[in-house]
Amino acid sequence: GESVGLHLPTLSVQEGDNSIINCAYSNSASDYFIWYKQESGKGPQFIIDIRSNMDKRQGQRVTVLLNKTVKHLSLQIAATQPGDSAVYFCAENTVDQAGTALIFGKGTTLSVSS
Amino acid sequence: DAGVTQSPTHLIKTRGQHVTLRCSPISGHKSVSWYQQVLGQGPQFIFQYYEKEERGRGNFPDRFSARQFPNYSSELNVNALLLGDSALYLCASSSGQGASTEAFFGQGTRLTVV
Q1: Domain at A25, CATH number
Q2: How many domains are there within chain A?
Q3: pLDDT of residue A93
Q4: Which residues of A fall within a CB distance of 8 Å from B46?
Q5: Residues A64-90: what's their mean pLDDT?
Q6: Domain that holds residue A85
Q7: How many structural domains are present in chain B?
Q8: Which of A26, A91, B60, B113 counts the highest number of beta carbons within 10 A?
């Protein structure tokens, strides 16, 4: 079936480095994508979103890139901090789903060492 | 402002029992969605309700049911619990039904079935 997946289950970086977390999606009809951060014992926390009519969107220390040609999504975190350590999920909202029914990938665990 | 609140935070049930989980959305939000997150996996969509009507259903058995009340709070019910129902159950609220609407998650209810 169609699903959102992440390329790497884990990513380890040093404090101050830039982190890049990748995600491949399979439904070309998806028109809205979101990155979530989930810390242990907590619910997913919204980081940044992007709509399919955009290629890039920037937030505070984060940038999301969308390549619709190859159905690829990435999250860039600048100057990664220990507090960024968490599991990161990409999610897509397809036109086949009603409302905000999101399809999540399995997640990438980001570990930041100081 | 209060975020999405879920109750209880944790509970333990025996196989075959029934469970009811509760969710209060952010004030003003009319859409509530339920997700199941098994350890090590991304959240999986169960239901979406908007204006008290079911607007989306994921691939879950009929043992799972939900409803939304006039105040937009919601309940998720699971009958005849199985060991495999052990998971973190997440509720998300959003302001509208349409795609491209940001969903905010609660902290979840950790259900353990023994």
Answers
A1: 2.60.40.10
A2: 1
A3: 82
A4: none
A5: 95
A6: 4-113
A7: 1
A8: A91
